[in-house]
Amino acid sequence: MSFEYTPQGVCARKIIFDLDSDNVIHNVSFVGGCNGNLKAISKLVEGMKAEKVIELLEGNTCGARKTSCADQFTKALKERI
Fold it and tell me: N or C: which end of the chain has fewer CB within 10 A?
């Protein structure tokens, strides 16, 4: 199933991803943000269980911000699992 999430407090404007029935992540894309870094995150999490990605990325910050695009992705996943 495909989902869209609007992140807060980061440069990315949208996160789009698929979750299958086993909570495995597919087809992650970010609109806006640090293009190269977000493409890398998308490749790294492909085929991973959402719970593992949350464990790895939750709480990650970006500069002086209290969140990051990766952290916002974990919030999106938590809403869907």
Answer: N
